[in-house]
């Protein structure tokens, strides 16, 4: 059994600066990944809920650890996407699911070059199964957070295309617009409760199902933004916004609102689906591990005030009111003595 005592942060300002830098680098975006992992905890059954709620801040804050790893490990980036369009007009018919078969057909270098997120999800899934079987507290938490990140990435249309940033269609910047800017502006208005989770029979097949659904949205993501762009002048399309202590040029609130309305709820639907899938993968891994008693490995039980806060959050989610995760949330979570910095 692996245990870890979570040490307090010694230099909060350094950590917060590092985290803020990731805001523009994260796939779904900083706050969106936070929401997806955090809200997934509230969908878990009784046998899991106590453990995950006791560690909800870790699960939340480490939702971006996989993105951080991209800038420290050159082999990490392909784990976050799958350029399905590289494999022809019907990639989900053409591409074999099994790793040995797909690498034999296209070569391992090719598969890695064009993204491995479905296989990464499968790998992390069985890593989580093994962590559950071993009652490995640290392994369960870290792998849950990372698995949640990769599953969420697979739910993003722009992670399924070579034109991931609109760079091939003169729409450069689309990546951050769809995945970060709009969720940051309007995410607190989304109804994100997805209903009951499901048991996943085949984690790899389900990963491909997720990717296929995201891929079907790619044309709409691109075509709708191009149409909206024609109705805005440059001085209306962009504005100066404050990010941390910096002032940067970004898409205007008006432009983001127009694009979101034209998408007819697509971003909220993909976030909601991501939340359901993340929780379903966690749950299925726990079932496949034999449903171990997670209450026995809770290192730091929740205080009464923490239980009340979590109960309010859960109620808010299930009644259609999204939570606002602010810098104050970050500071509070990071300064708790049982928390740690994101792992490498």
The tally of structural domains comes to 1
Name the beta content range: under 5%
What is the CATH topology assignment? P1 Nuclease
User: Any guess at the CATH architecture?
Assistant: Orthogonal Bundle
Helix/strand-derived class?
A: mainly alpha
Placed side by side, the strands forming the largest sheet appear as 1-2
Keywords:
344 residues, mainly alpha, P1 Nuclease, two-stranded antiparallel ribbon, 57% helix, disordered C terminus
Give a concise summary.
This protein is mainly alpha-helical and 344 residues long.
Please give the structural blueprint.
Layout: H1 12-22, H2 30-41, H3 46-54, H4 56-61, H5 65-70, H6 91-94, H7 99-106, H8 108-113, H9 117-133, H10 137-154, H11 174-186, H12 203-215, H13 218-229, H14 234-237, E1 238-243, E2 246-251, H15 253-263, H16 266-288, H17 304-318, H18 327-335
Antiparallel strand pairs: 1-2
Helix pairs in contact: 2-16, 9-10, 9-12, 9-16, 10-16, 11-15, 13-15
């Amino acid at each position: 059994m692996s245990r870890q005592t979570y040490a307090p942060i010694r230099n909060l300002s350094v950590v917060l600066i590092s985290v803020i830098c990731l805001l523009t680098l994260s796939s779904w975006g900083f706050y969106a990944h936070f929401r997806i992992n955090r809200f997934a905890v509230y969908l878990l059954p009784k046998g899991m809920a106590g453990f995950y709620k006791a560690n909800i801040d870790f699960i939340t804050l480490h939702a971006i650890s996989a993105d951080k790893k991209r800038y420290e490990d050159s082999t990490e980036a392909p784990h976050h996407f799958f350029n399905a369009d590289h494999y022809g007009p019907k990639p989900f018919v053409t591409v074999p699911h099994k790793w040995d078969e797909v690498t034999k057909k296209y070569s391992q270098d090719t598969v890695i070059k064009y993204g491995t997120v479905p296989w990464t999800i499968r790998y992390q899934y069985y890593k989580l199964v093994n962590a559950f079987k071993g009652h490995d507290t640290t392994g369960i938490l870290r792998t849950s957070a990372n698995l949640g990140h990769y599953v969420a990435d697979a739910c993003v249309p722009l992670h399924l295309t070579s034109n991931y940033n609109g760079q091939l269609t003169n729409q450069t910047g689309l990546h951050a617009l769809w995945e970060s800017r709009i969720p940051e502006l309007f995410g607190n208005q989304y109804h994100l409760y997805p209903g009951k989770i499901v048991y996943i029979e085949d984690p790899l097949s389900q990963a491909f199902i997720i990717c296929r659904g995201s891929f079907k949205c790619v044309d709409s993501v691109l075509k709708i933004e191009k149409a909206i762009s024609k109705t805005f002048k440059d001085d209306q399309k962009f504005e100066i916004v404050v990010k941390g202590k910096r002032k940067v040029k970004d898409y205007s609130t008006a432009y983001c609102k127009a694009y979101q309305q034209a998408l007819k709820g697509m971003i909220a639907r993909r976030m909601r689906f991501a939340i359901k899938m993340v929780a379903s993968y966690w749950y299925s891994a726990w079932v496949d591990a034999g449903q171990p008693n997670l209450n026995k490995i809770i290192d730091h039980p929740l205080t009464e005030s923490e239980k009340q806060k979590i109960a309010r959050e859960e109620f808010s989610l299930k009644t259609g009111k999204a939570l606002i995760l602010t810098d104050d949330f970050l500071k509070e979570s990071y300064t708790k003595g049982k928390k740690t910095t994101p792992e490498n």
